[in-house]
């Protein structure tokens, strides 16, 4: 297990080099190839008629006016799909959701019918005149009310279903936890709501489905983070209408942001495929922004009652979370199948807690189905937010500095690998070092002094800490699968005769920079310059099978697979080098790029020479060529961590929270490309700031979506984003082939509680104990006025 | 987000524009920057049958002082106002208004005439023009007509323009001695409409007594409106912290905000108080000769 990575030359550009991103020239010059850029001869357009109601019976659908418009070829309804038994489809969580409704709609903006036309504008004109008669039904918006005995049962499609309860899941020992709480000196309890948000990637979802009748082959260019899994799902779901897996090709071209929102199969994809199969022409469907925000899978929406117990001198002893998850009308979460609440039981966080019990119940409501993991590894954000808020509340409650309380309770460096009370084995960490570094950078003690001075003057300044532990890289096949498919991932490397290589992966970059980082891994392992390693992903006809990119899993899985495949190639290269140089394999020493005869630095063969020999002069009895494939089954998850400190100033007049400083110290083990990691942290912090202060999708009592456009769904811009101050510690993963951990989501997960803690820290002396995110000006103003501050 | 079909005409002169307006009446809409019209069209909230593009009409984009007034052509882009040294140094309230409208991309297209003619109480220029006591020049079949800004916003989302008139110019009285103005907007994020904003323009005498005051409010009334009681309170009064606080409270009372996702009516009304206090304070500071 490599802990220290040798530094290659800049020409090779292996791990640790801040190589410029290979994909950027095409992105920066507008030469990317996104789904919207795919235009095929004879292609038709699809537009979708959506429900204005959150819950309504469909009395009738009259498409005659739409069909009368020249250029409108078809209007597809649920009844049309029902004829092929395609009107419902399974979700990843073994629930079902409608493709198109036959009887009733279950949320506002649900798909009701699809108009297929020769032109995008004609399709929209057609959709505008499809007459749907609805009969409104009682709407269930509040998940707590959904579980009351008199609540209308939403899933009347499920025989025998008498309530809106989806699942109950729990982890930990309830009795041990109860006893720890009973014995505790101090217990703090808080209701915490983590609101429904949306990933709002720049590119919305869409596809071009093209069914070639003569060959019976379906090709779908699709905005998906997991093309291989999608292919298999299509084969399983539509096998009965003749779609066979070898005849299905999913191409995920350049993707303009995924963040978990492009993991699910949305009805629009399926309708477009059905339309193409029925009509025999390519069909394009691209969501607009409002459809994307209102209908696609949401994230979060966890209502938690959290309790934390401690001794009076601040030793944390027990944790209890009871959570209600609002899933909308279907459980369309994108978790590994055995985890209905994802990896929520990472919620003991960075602390050495000896008792914990966590329960989650899922409820149906009249909202879009979900929830996906918004740049997060399956509910880790919810877990981290709740524990970090509770730790801060405890610190304030017992009058201890929040940093000191954390330091006192962190898992110690020498306790790793650390088995948590809820069953995870944390691979490595040094939590004290990360927090201390963040405190040193920000000048923690000075800030506390300044805060006291400001408070004396009636000004509101707060300091918030978040010391998070992530759990990423799903995952070991023992526990992790999606619909039975194990969550390995893959790499296939072929070295060409001139010593250049192509590498293909089962993952799919959506902006993460895989074309660069994977090339650097191969460069590190083989010494082939990263500039000459061509990386390809996303085409199921060419790439090896894999479960895709989400939950910070690409480096822990496919990245590991790249190293393992490269090492297989190196093993063969050693044999070839020994043969060519007529020495024993054991007499050769490897350094990135060449094998040298021990004790004779003049005698060596470069990887390029060896590659040529693999095709021109390979040993008798050995297969020609130099290539390898590896399907990597990770032995464990990786546990990146970090400590963030945020300083806020609050305008008592307007209620505005101003983030004055934000220091982020991250540890993701060994780093492939420092510049890309910095970029990931910057982006993640901005996406952590977003739900903390701005983003929320809420609903009124009639189930109308409030936040269904960028007027009200407030994605922060560069203006709102503070100057991020980033730094790092490096604690390699002991089980990963090159000691790396995932990093793409750490900041999204870690940032919100730092901001929330800072705001509450600024107001604690007024009697404020908690404010739910997003901490909007109007919300903070209300808190201030309720506590007698007039501004 | 696909508009209904429409006919598109490029006008090359004011007379041609007025002729087209006379011909198509309320079926026609003028396209200048398009930054309000196009979003409404793509959502099919507006479905005009005729779009008259006036970007080809020359001579409507200028910023100049003449006859004791600042005269701004209706097709002047917000970004031009933002970059104008004359506006920045001579009319800081207008500079402050232009630079907080939407975002830089929108401001490169959006025009001051469109902002006013749209008569949206959430737009930023109406409050500032009310505070500045501007005059609107409308061009119609019978030539130019001058409309005082106080008469320009008769009802909800309506302007005083006749269907066959086009807004061509905005005239703002040049500031006298010890005059100062300020526009303070509070928004949820850049690009959003104001939760509330307050425009203040006032004049002090040598003893710091307020001798003229106009206060405009953004997005807290059904139509762009002034806080006349607050104005009346200030006029004839020596400016003190207490006077500013009292006037701000009056302005808040005069606002009539609605609860929405930007905040409750109660919040917005209090925000008017806070912003009015800050805007009056800044205007006073400028009137006294401070740059800030």
Description:
The complex is a heterodimer of chains A (791) and B (292). Chain A has a 7-stranded mixed sheet with strand order 3-7-1-14-11-12-13. Chain A has a 5-stranded mixed sheet with strand order 9-17-16-15-10. Helix content of chain A is 28%, strand content 25%. In chain A, α7 links the parallel β12 (217-222) and β13. Chain A is α+β, with helices and mostly antiparallel strands and 791 residues long. Chain A has 3 domains: 24-31 and 489-632, Aldehyde oxidase/xanthine dehydrogenase, molybdopterin binding domain (Aldehyde Oxidoreductase, domain 4); 35-137 and 205-286, Aldehyde Oxidoreductase, domain 3, CATH 3.90.1170; 299-474 and 636-786, Aldehyde oxidase/xanthine dehydrogenase, molybdopterin binding domain (Aldehyde Oxidoreductase, domain 4). The model of chain A has no long low-confidence stretch (mean pLDDT 97). Chain A is built from 19 helices and 34 strands. Chain B has 292 residues and is an alpha+beta fold. Chain B is built from 11 helices and 12 strands. A 5-stranded antiparallel sheet of chain B has the order 4-5-8-6-7. A 4-stranded antiparallel sheet of chain B has the order 9-10-11-12, sandwiched between helices. In chain B, α9 (228-234) packs antiparallel against α10 (241-254) and α10 (241-254) crosses α11. The interface between A and B is medium-sized, with 32 and 24 residues.
How helical, in percent, are the residues of chain A?
25-40%
**What integer is the average pLDDT of chain B?**
97
The strands making up the biggest β-sheet of chain B line up spatially as 4-5-8-6-7
End-to-end gap of chain B: 43 Å
Strand element count of chain A:
34
At the first level of CATH, the class of the largest domain in chain B is Alpha Beta
Domains of chain A, number: 3
Write down the overall mean pLDDT of chain A. Answer: 97
* End-to-end C-alpha gap of chain A: 59 Å
Largest sheet of chain A: 7 strands, mixed
């Amino acid at each position: 297990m490599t802990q220290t990575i040798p530094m290659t030359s800049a020409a090779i550009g292996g791990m640790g080099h801040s190589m410029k991103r290979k994909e950027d020239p095409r992105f920066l010059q507008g030469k990317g190839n996104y789904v919207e850029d795919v235009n095929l001869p004879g292609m038709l357009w699809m537009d979708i008629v959506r429900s204005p109601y959150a819950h309504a019976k469909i009395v009738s659908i009259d498409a005659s006016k739409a069909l009368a418009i020249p250029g409108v070829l078809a209007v597809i309804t649920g009844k049309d799909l029902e004829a092929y038994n395609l009107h419902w489809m399974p979700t990843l969580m073994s629930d079902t959701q409608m493709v198109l409704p036959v009887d009733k709609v279950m949320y506002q903006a649900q798909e009701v019918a699809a108009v297929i036309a020769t032109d995008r504008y004609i399709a929209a004109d057609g959709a505008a005149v499809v007459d749907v008669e609805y009969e409104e039904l009682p709407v269930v918006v509040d998940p707590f009310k959904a579980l009351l005995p008199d609540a209308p049962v939403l899933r009347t499609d499920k025989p025998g279903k008498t309530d809106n309860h989806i699942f109950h899941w729990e982890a930990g020992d309830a009795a041990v936890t109860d006893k720890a709480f009973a014995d505790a000196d101090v217990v703090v309890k808080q209701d915490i709501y983590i609101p429904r948000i949306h990933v709002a990637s720049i590119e919305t979802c869409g596809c071009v489905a093209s069914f070639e009748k003569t060959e019976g082959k379906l090709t779908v260019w699709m905005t998906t983070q997991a093309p291989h899994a999608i292919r298999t799902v299509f084969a399983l779901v539509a096998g009965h209408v003749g779609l066979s897996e070898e005849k299905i090709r999913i191409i995920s071209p350049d993707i303009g942001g995924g963040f978990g929102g492009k993991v699910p199969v949305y009805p629009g994809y399926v309708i477009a495929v059905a339309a193409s199969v029925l009509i025999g022409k390519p069909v394009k469907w691209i969501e607009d922004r409002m459809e994307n925000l209102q209908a696609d899978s949401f994230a979060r929406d966890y209502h938690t009652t959290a309790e934390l117990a401690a001794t009076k001198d601040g030793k944390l002893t027990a944790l209890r979370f009871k959570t209600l998850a609002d899933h909308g009308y279907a459980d369309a979460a994108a978790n590994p199948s055995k985890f209905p609440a994802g990896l929520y039981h990472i919620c003991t966080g960075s602390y050495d807690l000896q008792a914990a019990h966590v329960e989650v119940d899922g409820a149906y409501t009249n909202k879009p189905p979900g929830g996906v993991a918004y740049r997060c590894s399956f509910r880790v954000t919810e877990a981290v937010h709740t524990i970090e808020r509770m730790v801060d509340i405890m610190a304030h409650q017992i009058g201890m500095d929040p940093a000191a309380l954390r330091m006192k309770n962190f898992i110690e460096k020498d306790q790793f690998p650390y088995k948590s009370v809820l069953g995870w084995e944390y691979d490595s960490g040094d939590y004290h070092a990360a927090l201390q570094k963040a405190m040193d950078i920000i000048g923690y003690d000075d800030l506390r002094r300044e805060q006291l001075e400001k408070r004396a003057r009636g000004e509101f300044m707060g300091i918030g800490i978040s010391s998070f532990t992530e759990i990423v890289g799903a995952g070991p096949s023992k526990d992790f699968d999606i619909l039975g498919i194990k969550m390995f991932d893959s790499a296939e490397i072929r070295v060409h005769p001139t010593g250049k290589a192509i590498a293909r992966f089962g993952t799919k970059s959506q902006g993460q920079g895989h074309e660069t980082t994977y090339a650097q891994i191969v460069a590190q392992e083989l010494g082939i310059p990263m500039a000459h390693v061509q990386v390809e992903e996303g085409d199921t006809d060419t790439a090896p099978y894999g479960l895709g990119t989400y939950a910070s899993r690409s480096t822990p899985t496919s990245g590991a697979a790249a190293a393992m495949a490269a090492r297989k190639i190196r093993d063969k290269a050693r044999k070839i080098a020994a043969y060519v140089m007529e020495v024993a394999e054991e007499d050769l020493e490897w350094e990135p790029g060449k094998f040298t005869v021990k004790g004779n630095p003049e005698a060596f063969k470069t990887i390029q020479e060896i590659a040529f020999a693999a095709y021109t002069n390979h040993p008798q009895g050995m297969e020609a060529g130099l290539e390898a494939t590896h399907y990597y089954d990770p032995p464990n998850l990786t546990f990146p961590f970090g400590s963030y400190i945020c300083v806020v100033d609050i305008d008592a007049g307007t209620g505005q929270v101003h983030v004055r400083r934000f220091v982020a110290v991250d540890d993701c083990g060994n780093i492939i490309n420092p510049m890309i990691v910095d970029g990931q942290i910057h982006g993640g912090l901005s996406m952590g700031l977003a739900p903390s202060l701005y983003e929320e999708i809420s609903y009124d009592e009639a189930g109308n979506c409030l936040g269904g456009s960028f007027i009200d769904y407030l994605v922060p811009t560069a203006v709102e984003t503070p100057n991020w101050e980033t730094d790092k510690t490096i604690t390699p993963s002991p089980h990963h082939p090159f000691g790396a951990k995932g990093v793409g989501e750490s900041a999204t997960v870690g940032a919100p509680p730092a901001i929330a803690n800072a705001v509450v820290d600024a107001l604690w002396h007024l009697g404020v104990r908690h404010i739910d995110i997003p901490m909007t000006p109007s919300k903070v103003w209300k808190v201030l006025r309720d506590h007698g501050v007039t501004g | 987000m696909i508009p209904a079909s429409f006919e598109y005409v490029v006008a090359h002169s004011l007379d041609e524009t007025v002729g087209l307006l006379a011909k198509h009446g309320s079926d026609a809409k003028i396209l200048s920057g398009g930054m309000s019209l196009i979003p409404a069209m793509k959502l099919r909230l507006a479905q005009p049958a005729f779009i008259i593009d006036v970007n080809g009409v020359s001579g409507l984009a200028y910023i100049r002082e003449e006859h004791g007034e600042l005269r701004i052509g209706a097709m002047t882009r917000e970004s031009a106002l933002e970059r104008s040294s004359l506006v920045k140094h001579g009319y800081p309230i207008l500079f402050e208004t232009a630079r907080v409208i939407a975002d830089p991309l929108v401001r490169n297209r959006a025009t001051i005439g469109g902002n006013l003619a749209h008569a949206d109480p959430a737009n930023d220029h109406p409050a500032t023009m009310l505070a500045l006591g501007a005059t609107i020049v409308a061009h119609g079949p019978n030539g130019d007509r001058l409309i005082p800004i106080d008469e320009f916003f008769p009802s909800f989302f309506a302007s005083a323009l006749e269907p066959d008139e086009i807004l061509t110019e905005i005239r703002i009285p040049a500031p006298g001695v010890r005059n100062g103005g300020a526009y303070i907007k509070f928004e949820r994020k850049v690009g959003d409409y104001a939760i509330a904003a307050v425009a203040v323009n006032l004049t002090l005498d040598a003893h710091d007594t307020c001798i003229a005051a106009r206060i405009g409010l953004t997005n807290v009334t059904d139509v762009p409106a002034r806080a006349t009681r607050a104005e009346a309170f200030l006029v004839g009064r020596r400016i003190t912290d207490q006077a500013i606080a009292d006037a701000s409270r009056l302005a808040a009372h005069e606002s009539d905000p609605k609860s929405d996702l930007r905040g409750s009516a109660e919040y917005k009304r209090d925000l008017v108080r806070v912003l009015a206090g800050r805007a009056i304070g800044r205007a006073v500071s400028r009137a006294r000769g401070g740059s800030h």
